[in-house]
Predict the structure.
Amino acid sequence: MNHPFLPLLVMFAVASVIVVALLTVASLFGPKSTNAAKNDPFESGNPPTGDARIRFSVRFYLVAMLFLIFDLEVVFLYPWAIYFRHLGVFGLIQMGIFLVILTVGYVYVWKKGALEWD
Amino acid sequence: MDVNLVPLLPAVQVLVTALVVTLRDLFIKDGESRGVLAFYSLVGLGLAAAEVFFLLGGRQEGAFNDSYMLDRFALFFALIFILAAALTILSAIDYVRQTGMREGEFYALILFATVGMIVMAAANDLMVFFLGLETMSIAVYVLTGMWRSNGRSSEAAMKYFLMGAFATGFLLYGIALIYGATGSTNLAQISAYLLDQPSEWPVYLIGGGFLLLIGFAFKVGAVPFHFWVPDVYEGAPTPVTGFMSVAVKAAAFAAWARILLYKLSPLDNDWVFPLWIIAIATMTLGNLLAITQHSIKRMLAYSSIAHAGYLLIPIVVGVEWGGLPLLFYLLAYSFMTLGAFAVLTSMTEGDESKDGYSDFAGLGFKRPFLALAMALFMLSLAGFPPLAGFTGKFYVFRSAVLSGHLNLAIIGVLNSLLSVIFYLRVIVAMYMEEGGAAGKSFRQAPFVYIAVAIALLGTIYLGILPADALDWSRRAFGSLE
């Protein structure tokens, strides 16, 4: 019974018991009032207007996706820049290849018109 | 750090080809012929194949501290992938034009998927393997949905993506657990750990192994992780279906063979029995459900599940007997399946795919060559001598008998008998029924004919003269270390 993960199991058990107990007590003894306002979706205190399921232009998704890709590119550049001295010419060439491949993608989205809004 | 870029050559060749195709496509105006893109792709694949042969002659080398091993095993699979990609592109040239798919993206994505597969087969590190797997999977998800005006295609892509992403989660979690247990993602170190302390394996190491197993079983479409296969294979554009059922499956089996069958073989005892059940369930269910299908494309999807079952036999059999039949069967399976899908591709009319049995009625009289080829592919898939499928099945069942899994061999042979029902139905429809089959003539789709002819040659060659390929498979599996 001295498994190293035993405390973890105990913690999970205690946590589950507390959660279930609190929820049960709250639903048994808590005051209950139901009205229409309680069922409304929460919009920071304003009365909700319109439907939540409105149509967005697909371009938003496109822009988000492109942002993600080129944002990640920069994320990869940071550690490389900090370590640049150690990596030397080899690192420069490697990063160059990485950037060339991404540039092909950039040219692609540009020529396909993904960067134009209309 | 030990950096050696030579082993990357074939993968980089295909990658550069894909980038060139992507860029070249942008500078062709709408309405102009894009045939040059297919030509570039085929030349690039041809160069990559030449490099593979060149590297076969040299000594085995690893790149990046041996986390990428381009040994004979990887080269063998690289050739299968290159062959599958080339035949897919050949049979797709007319198809993509007809259905109004974007040609440049189609060829480029096939090439990107091929890069991922080569990396998967050569991966000697779980993280490198995962990179290859994702490169392949994401490209294939998109390829599945390439036929955008067709609702079935989009539905298939969505299903495949959701299920595939879920399975990837299993794989990644398995990798994480194995890393946690062994302290490394490098397969050489993991295998050293397994041999070193067989008594002190933590439970989660076995758990990690099983999660990997589930991930692989999903990728090859083994029962009970096969539910996506029929819908996705039916919805995807026909050349892509052929590519998926051959190349994606071969890539998954390559990684399975290297990682689970070979490097993690000390864990065999834990999963031999579950795998035994999975293998039997996969072939039996695949064959039984294939009988009830009305669409030949869907029948081939179930048949590909059944063949995954046959391919699992060598994996159950284990590392001692299983290597040669696994590799040889995959090679044989590639030729006959790609051929069958190429014939199916030629049946497309306008933007309608004609893949019911009734659409094949009378093909034997209208297009004798296509019908003859299809008949031979069907016989080969069913396992009739002297075709590739027979030789492949013979060695698979032989390995089961030799290693003492007689029950597997018997169930496998019974399953082959069962499969004759639906394979012969295609031949019956083509030769004994009247109907207005819609196969294309050589003039209408010359490249499909070339693809069919290549696949047919391979199917017959591997059936009659398998010695070279067998020897090659043996040495390929023997090169794992």
Q: What stands out?
A: Residues 118 and 266 of chain B are 26 Å apart (CA to CA). Chain B touches chain A at residues 3, 19, 22-23, 26 (CB under 8 Å).
